Amino acid sequence: MTEDTGTPTDARTDGGTTGADDVTLDPWGSSTIADYRKLFEEFGIEAFDALLDAVPEPHYLMRRGVIFGQRDYRPVARAMREDDPFAVLSGFMPTGDPHIGHKLVFDEIIWHQEQGGDAYAVIADLEANAARGLSWAAIDEHTKNYLLSLLALGFDPEDGTLYRQSENRALQDLAFELGAEANLSELDAIYGFGGDTEVSHVQSVLTQMADILYPQLDAPKPTVIPVGPDQDPHIRLARDLAARTRFFGVTEAYASFATDDDERAILADAYETLIARDPDATVRCEDAARLLETDRQGHDAVRDRVITMLNEAGKEPLRPRVRFLDRNATDEAFEALVESIDGEKRVYDAHVDAFEMDHGAAETLARELELDHGGHGFQLPSSIYHRFMTGLTGGKMSSSEPASHISLLEPPESGKDKVLSATTGGRTTAEEQRELGGEPDDCPVYELYAYLLAGDDDALATEVYEECLGGDRLCGGCKQQAADLMEAFLDDHQDKRDEWADRLDELDIEQTSSRR
């Protein structure tokens, strides 16, 4: 796999490569992505660069396009700007040593914590045991190493939350609660589970859903989950489950009957057309049906459904309103909702229509009433997505291939040697390099600068990129510089790990699993 990080000054977040096969996202597999643009098209991930100006002091991974995508990150960016509460959470499955690829997630958690977010770092030990079959003794050893690297990189444990899935009863209770909103057919469709899937693996998925929503147990707030794109199935399911647990859904409506988004868009267009013709008229459903019949161009199944519903509604007025859908509300909460809506309203068995309330006020009221009556009021979790680091030997960076990655625990001299032996995007000869320029977008060594070694120094990352592209930088000298920087980074990181080693017992997290 080739990851195109683009130039630091003109970050390319569209993937940069073409010709990939259909993308399959497997949270436990070996997903590789040749064309990140397919994620925008197939899974609804949005480009991050459109939001870059809305983020206060964006991290260098954002500026350089390493963080390339997002799902609903705007509420988090708004909370940062307005100094409102927000949270960040990500998890680590302790199945091996933390390496430089994991550092991306460490950095993303720490940066959000520095911006004022409530930071959560999860040791996904139940997942490691259920999905990978690791022993609890091995999990405990890897857990210690992940914690030490996270702390050495700057996580503040006094202002953040660390926990293990297996030792968090509130998390497990939430997972059980979320299980009432999911079914096996749905999990089969998302994850490809079959008849031979162990039940513990299924349970680990629900535990991860609880992880994603855990920062909102005390109070709903915007929450971002930094992940690689292979984890997007978890994000989508968690958003669905968060919505299903809500007491009330809030949507727009135009008539008493239920519609989906596509049908509602047709109703909105018809209403706007008719009211523009006569602003003082009472628009009725049958009027809109005639309009849609007149403007019909060929067969359109959605349009046909709307016409049928409008004809059945007949003389019922067609008017915009906000609709409160009863999803999981108690009788007391539903009655409180009816009493709380001021102005004109219509009450039905499973929904309430409010004619004098805007959508934002309706969302606020629905959440307040839910919290007052014992619900969670979850906000839909957001996510940001970073590119996979290319392995030092080309292809995927993998913990099972030592030459492809650099462990955060390995001797600094070893890390230096691996950089010196790494594949590059250079030409066959120095003469060709000077004449044609290098190919930094296809170079694992340039990625080391962009993702890690240049740190916050955009000028250095830009210099490396432009000198390589222009043929002024040759691979030998470039690798030597990167190797020296890697050695210095590992040396400093391991010194800080040593400083934390004797302080782990101070942390509010179990070092040894009670399941051993």
From TrEMBL:
GO BP annotations, alphabetical order: tryptophanyl-tRNA aminoacylation
GO MF term set: ATP binding; tryptophan-tRNA ligase activity
Region (Disordered): 1-24, 396-439
Entry GO terms, CC: cytoplasm
Superkingdom of source: Archaea
Motif ('KMSKS' region): 396-400
Cellular location(s): Cytoplasm
InterPro entries in alphabetical order: aa-tRNA-synth_Ic, Rossmann-like_a/b/a_fold, Trp-tRNA-ligase, Tryptophan-tRNA-ligase_arc
Compositionally biased intervals (Low complexity): 1-10
Keywords: Aminoacyl-tRNA synthetase, ATP-binding, Cytoplasm, Ligase, Nucleotide-binding, Protein biosynthesis
Membrane-spanning parts: none
Motif ('HIGH' region): 94-102
EC number per UniProt: 6.1.1.2
SUPFAM superfamilies: Nucleotidylyl transferase
Family per record: Belongs to the class-I aminoacyl-tRNA synthetase family.
Name of protein: Tryptophan--tRNA ligase
Taxonomic lineage of the native organism: Archaea, Methanobacteriati, Methanobacteriota, Stenosarchaea group, Halobacteria
